[in-house]
Design brief:
Blueprint: H1 2-6, E1 15-17, H2 20-32, E2 43-45, H3 52-58, E3 72-75, H4 93-103, H5 105-111, E4 117-122, H6 131-135, E5 139-146, H7 150-166, H8 174-187, E6 201-203, E7 207-209, E8 215-219, E9 224-228, E10 243-247, H9 251-260, E11 264-265, H10 269-275, H11 277-291, H12 304-313, H13 315-321, H14 323-337, E12 355-356, H15 363-373, H16 378-384, H17 386-393, H18 398-410, H19 416-424
Parallel strand pairs: 9-10
Antiparallel strand pairs: 1-2, 3-4, 4-5, 5-6, 7-8, 8-9, 11-12
Length: about 425
């Protein structure tokens, strides 16, 4: 993973923590979770407070996600709201964190001047053992504590203030008044500084979960659709009257579902030619076939001539693969007639010809599903399915790893919003 680290393709855009008072607060949060304190003088964190360096120090990448549910978080600064999430078991972790920051911005700013927030994103299950456990998660609650107990002291001061204003004799209680003064020295004027978060409960709708080999849950008005490995416990048995199940390897049925529910953009001359997506995917397939050759070719020489030579030399392998010639024919059909008859396309290959519908609420989740099922496209997989990308990367030949890193650095990392807009029609929201 050293190449990925050096290129900031993994654990990139994190916030460095080196201030002693912030490290002390982080340690108190770790202690609150029953974890050992860090001895590091500097480490990086993501939006949830996860640190790859502390994970390595503890020998536990899941120290903030111990059972892959009820995710823990540590908030040291409001600046975390602009960070990505780099280690999660649910695709909507970042979204939930952004919602929490947006709904409680004043309180977070006020508290983190003197304290750190930590806690768990709690849902209705303690451990995911079957699909039913995932399906039962409809909303989450942020259970929030503070490292220096600023929240607890603010709550106590609020109660004393209420007692002072409602009791006719409280103002004569010297102990009560002195306690209020001591608390106010720590909390400040709680009438001016909102120290208690306003909103703690949030919806948990469509999502991907890193359980049972990956589970995609799509929520429509009258039906929930689960797409996963059919070996997952509870497949077709959990709530069959309200849940539709599709096997993750059933590309044809997945395409039908996405098309029927309006989650994908079918091929049209305008967006296909403007985006260059078909040409991009064809090149990705060609490169993936090259990566499987023995010996592995020199990827440092990749250019149009190199690709054309590879296309001719591997004509049989490309024909057997089916995707490459299909994409080539699709581009010719669009250029010639302006449309593609999807009925003429092998149902197993149709996902190569579509992208998630821009602007749809599930665009990122749909893009993740498509990227997962068109795995040779390592660029799309890095953008939308980083966990899947990192696992696939481990199996790439060394020469291909070098090329993959250089390709991502020279294209995607140069201007991520522009790249996503051109290829996938995505707006400026930065989820990756």
């Amino acid at each position: 993973m050293n190449r990925l680290l050096e290129a900031e393709l993994i654990y990139g855009r994190l916030l460095t923590i080196r201030e002693p008072h912030l490290i002390a607060r982080y340690n108190k949060a770790l202690a609150g979770f029953g974890l050992p304190e860090t001895g590091l003088a500097e480490f990086d964190i993501d939006i949830t407070g996860f640190s790859p360096q502390i994970a390595a120090e503890l020998g536990d990448a899941d120290y903030l996600d111990p059972k892959k549910v009820n995710r823990r978080f540590i908030i040291l600064t409001p600046e975390q709201d602009r960070l990505p999430v780099v280690h999660t078991s649910f695709s909507n972790t970042a979204g939930l964190m952004h919602e929490f920051f947006a709904a409680n911005r004043r309180a977070i700013h006020a508290i983190t001047l003197k304290d750190a927030l930590y806690g768990e994103i709690e849902d209705s299950v303690a451990e995911v053992q079957t699909l039913e456990h995932l399906l039962s998660i409809n909303e989450v609650t942020f259970r929030v504590l503070s490292a220096e107990d600023l929240l607890g002291r603010a709550g106590e001061l609020r109660k004393l203030c209420d007692q002072l204003t409602t009791s006719e004799t409280a103002w004569r209680d010297d102990a009560l008044i002195n306690r209020m003064v001591d608390l106010a020295k720590v909390t400040g004027d709680i009438r001016q500084n909102a120290l208690v978060p306003d909103q703690l409960v949030f919806r948990h709708d469509a999502f991907w979960a890193d359980h049972f080999g990956g589970v995609f849950v799509f929520v429509d008005e009258k039906l929930t659709t689960v797409i996963c490995n059919p070996d997952a416990p509870g497949f077709r048995r959990s709530r069959p009257w309200q849940v539709s199940y599709i096997a993750l390897d059933d590309h044809a049925q997945i395409f039908d579902f996405l098309a029927r529910t309006g989650r994908i953009e079918l091929p049209r001359t305008g967006w296909v030619e403007e985006s260059g997506l078909f040409a991009h995917r064809a090149e990705m397939v060609l490169l993936s076939i090259a990566a499987r050759l023995d010996p592995v070719p020199d990827f440092k020489r990749v250019d149009p001539v190199w690709l054309q030579t590879l296309q001719h030399s591997q004509a049989r392998a490309l024909a057997e693969h089916k995707v490459y010639p299909m994409l080539q024919e699709a581009m010719r059909s669009l250029s010639r007639a302006g449309v593609i008859r999807m009925a003429d396309i092998d149902p197993k290959l149709r996902l190569w010809l579509v992208r998630a519908l821009p602007g749809h609420a599930d665009q990122w989740l749909t893009s993740r599903l498509i990227a997962h099922l068109t795995a040779e496209d390592f660029v799309s997989r890095f953008v939308f399915d980083k966990q899947g990308f990192y696992r696939a990367y481990e199996d790439y030949p060394e020469a291909y790893r070098d090329y993959v890193v250089s390709r991502l650095v020279s294209t995607y990392l140069q201007d991520k919003p522009l790249f996503r807009k051109r290829l996938f029609g995505l707006g400026d929201d930065d989820h990756a």
